[in-house]
Model the fold of this input.
Amino acid sequence: MAESADLDSEPEVARLLAACARQDRQAFQRLYDLTSPQLLGCLIRQLRNRALAEDALQDVFVQVWRRAAQFQRERGSSWAWLIAIARYRAIDLQRRERRLVAGGDQELEAMPAEEESHDSLLALGHRVTGALNDCLNALQPRQRDCIVLSYQHGMTHAEVAESIGEPLGSVKSWIRRGLAALRRCLET
Amino acid sequence: MKRNDPDILDLLAAEYVLGTLAGGARRRFARWRDADPFVDRRVRAWEDRLAALAFRLPPVSPSPGVWVSIERRIGFAPRGRWRAMAAAAGAIAVLALGWLVWQETRVAPPPAQAVIADQAGAALWRVELAADGGLIEVSTIGTVHYPDRRALELWALPPDAAPVSLGLMPASGRVRLALDDRQRAALGLAANLAVSEEPPGGSPTGVPTGPVLYVATIARG
Done:
């Protein structure tokens, strides 16, 4: 699939990002074409509204253009850097919106076609690179669910607790222990 | 927070990346990260470790207006030719530039297109033939229920001839399919497109083997 993003494109994304740091506008457009669908997928999942997500996507790429020179490849992958900018932007917007309309219903429009239930996360596991997937599979199911939910939806502890119907204290400790186990697993 | 407590720092970095570090603690941690390369490295390590989770989410193609807005916000000038013409226009430069930018952002109608809808009339995909006829672009515009472990294949239906495969349909997002001469010829004659359900990778025989799920009429501009 021509537009599907995956880690195979990492060298190309890194090269384009380096060109953006030199103010290469064509490289910036190519970077946008290559990475914007995956980033928009993340933003829609978190913001649950396509129009808000597209506004956030603008903010993300304006930031990418301005901060490209700060990207240091030796500290991590370029895809991960882009995804982090998008996720943090969405988290900021999510938390700001919740302060404004506390308890307001979120719009559910524009959810992507492949919306998967929490139970079927593992069914899509083949799309995740091996190491993380293996280590997620090795976690206790509740630890894994809490981590995946908070990462993909940008949920706080309280929102994860509400979403899976478990006590807040349990969710906090599952996430903490799950993350520690994940790091140990990924480092071995 | 002491940075010489590596386990606590690492947990904070992980919860910052995850998003569960919230409120004032999140803002303080973000400032600490900006100021301290040691903290930044721990955060980047977690961003790397978890990024694969983002690839589980289906990609979605942005509307064309998003790129136009980004260019405007960054201050990219319109491309060279437009700029030269606008400058030459002298007193009406501002008006001309406005018109040219508008022209540039307009999408020319493709020479042929079709919208594939389900039985209830809900649009699922748009299929557009590129101006030079060399490729088609298939964009997902609705919620597609892609059959489990099966492929959906797109066919041109030329009159009085066998269907010709054009490629596989995306479950989400957008694909561009390059056409060879045979496919171009079939598409040029066809009045309709069809989508059939096939084994993974598409029909093994070159003709539809599974049920035809959708048929759409080609509109030519």
Summary: Residues 64-105 of chain B form one domain.
